Amino acid sequence: MKKNICLVFTALLFISYSCKTETSKKEVSENKEIRQWKPEDTRSLTGLFDKRGLINDSEYDTQGYVLYEPSLGTFSYLMDKQGDIVHQWTASLNSLNSYLMPNGHLFRLERDENFPTFAAGGQAGRIREYDWDGNMVWDFKYFDEKKLLHHDFEIMPNGNILAISYDAKSPEEAIAAGRDPKHIPKAGIWPDKVIEIRPTKPSGGEIVWEWKMWDHLIQDIDSSKANYGVISDFPRKININVLGGEGGGPPMSDEQIKQMIKGGILTSNASADNQGSDISHFNSVNYNADLDQIVVSVPNYGEIFIIDHSTTKEEAKGSSGGRWGHGGDLLYRWGNPKNYGQGTEEDQKLFGQHDVKWVPSDYPGEGNLMVFNNDILNPDSKFPNMFAALAVAEFPEVKMSINDVGNYSSILEFIPPINENGEYLIPANQAIGPETPSWGYTAPDKYSFYSAFMSGAQRLKNGNTLITQGMQGRIFEVTPESEIVWDYLGPYMFNYKLPDGTPSQPVGPFIYGLFRSTLLTKDYPAFKGKDLKPISPQPEPFIFKMPPPEEVNEH
After folding, report:
1. What are the tens digits of pLDDT across the range 408-452?
2. Which of 306, 366, 373 has the alpha carbon at shortest distance from 334?
3. Prediction pTM value
4. Hey, how many other C-beta atoms are within 10 angstroms of the C-beta on 75?
């Protein structure tokens, strides 16, 4: 297995050199020439050998500051558009993402070091609030054998917080709910839920509302169960037997998994018994206060779900009540109609997507939904996705071309169809619209823009879009005409470890990876009266050098 891990790493490095791309100079809509980043004529999956730091800073980008967290560090950085860090928060735990409030306080989703059970990447367990000077003013813990905060949270206008949590079920509970026994790991399954937290300072909080995927299931394999039905007759229900969470490749032994954890490719708590337990893997949550609705990204289903937040706790468990009359059943879904019996694999539009959110009011495209579509299938690929390639135990030769792992990414903006009352249109016996997005971004050569995991997109007030290409640690800004007007590759790599010596997140060779970034304009209230000059000294960049062969072989 040690040899296999080395081959995986080496294969990824080889991909950095093997796939040709081309990008030509572009012009903005006013026919003014801008500096366009021309990538090297290679396709880099890892970004390890790319030039890092500020790549392109044209006069057409949006002025402001970018907030982000390097994957294996304990820092949150605020960076100006020249690539200099102007403020930082230093914490004791690793964080995936954060939100800066108008009062200058920072909320961070942090990875607790001791939670049990869960093993799927994006693990957290804590939300902490810090003032501008880095003093912790609130600490919220939410984890045990049955639950764990993960991936994302959202701060509501009333100060409450929406967060994603696992909702673990035993094999017996899974069988009782109609899950196919052939697809129930020994550890059971981990469907998701959304909770609303009312903070109590300085620690803790009250769960004032929750919605559980588990309360809205349908299945068609066991007619003796209460939730048995024809899948296509219940598009507002969730088919418990969608198998997107099982991954690719043959099952691994505990010894193999231990080696993958040590190598930073799998996360702690992973075991042979819980492969496939993470059936849905919600990875983003966003709130629309005007509609009182919540949208979540469900990458293992290749879908986004919209649910009604106006329900009571009891109504959220059922199929009636709330502003929109459907209780906790889905108000809208999009991305993979096969899941509700109205399409085939050819109709799937979302692939491992992240960061679905509504475009804010008074922004171009207001009210539309936007999502980072991570892993769009190339029909000529030898593997269905990058992770399937990584799961192959042996490579006959360490050579991969564009058609070995030739998938790509895009940004999609789309308009959910509604009637005159603002209700989403859920047609009978056909796929839920829209058929095509209203706007999108892909690289001119298609394949040079690719991140199979993490990543996000943010619509800016001027109509530009800030994109986080997570695998390579790249943040760039594009115009509505898809012109790149600012481009940056994060140069920072840290080595925060858990108490047992394993990495806090399974980034593998993607050492510069970023989960997400957020641009805040210069007039954002948190910056009033702040002296946002580059800090001194700046954080130390990390320059990757290929280790000597004998050192690689030791791993």
Report:
1. 999 999 999 999 999 999 999 999 999 999 999 999 888 889 999
2. 306
3. 0.90
4. 18
Pick the closest to residue 536 from 52, 84, 39 (CA basis).
84
Three-class DSSP labels, 493-508: CCCCECCCCCECCCCC
What length does the chain have?
555
Nearest Cα residue to 287 out of 265, 318, 257, 308: 308
| DSSP three-state, residue 15 | helix
Task: Give the model's pLDDT for residue 455.
Answer: 97
Q: What angle do CA 242, 430, 286 make, to 5 degrees?
A: 60
Tens of pLDDT, residue by residue over 315-331, are 999 999 999 999 999 99
d(CA 140, CA 109): 10
Q: Is 23 helix (H, G, I), strand (E, B) or coil?
A: coil
Six-digit token string for 165: 């949590």
Residue 43 is predicted with a pLDDT of 61
User: What pLDDT is stored for residue 511 in this prediction?
Assistant: 92
Distance, in Å, from the CA atom of 228 to the CA atom of 219, rounded to the nearest integer, reads 5
Burial 255-278 (b: 16+ CB within 10 A, else e): ebbbbbbbbbbbbbbbbeebbbbb
Where does 214-254 show beta strands of DSSP type E? 217-218, 238-239
In angstroms, the CA 220 to CA 230 distance is 6
On whether the CB atoms of residues 298 and 334 are closer than 8 A, the answer is no
CB atoms near residue 173 (< 10 Å): 14
Concatenate the DSSP letters of all residues of 422-490 into one string.
S-B---TTSPPSPSS-SEEE-BTTBTTS--SSS-EEEE-TTS-EEEEEGGGTEEEEE-TT--EEEEEE-
CA dist 156 and 175 (Å) reads 36
Low-confidence stretches of the chain (pLDDT beneath 70): 1-43, 245-249, 381-405, 547-555
Instruction: Report the pLDDT value the prediction gives residue 389, as an integer from 0 to 100.
Output: 56
Confirm whether 34 is domain-assigned.
no
Question: Which pLDDT value is given to residue 473?
Answer: 96
- Residue 38 included in any domain: no
Three-class SS of 343-395:
CCHHHCCCCCCEEEEECCCCCCCCCCEEEEEEEECCCCCCCCCHHHHHHCCCC
Assigned domain for 35 exists: no
Give the count of domains, the chain: 1
The pLDDT score that the predictor gives to residue 416 is 98
Q: Please indicate, yes or no, if residue 46 is contained in any of the structural domains.
A: no
Q: What are phi and psi of 3, to 5 degrees?
A: -65, -40
Beta strands in 101-247 (DSSP E): 106-111, 125-130, 136-141, 147-155, 161-167, 192-199, 205-212, 217-218, 238-239
Host domain of residue 360: 2-24+64-114+125-553
Q: What is the pLDDT of residue 166?
A: 98
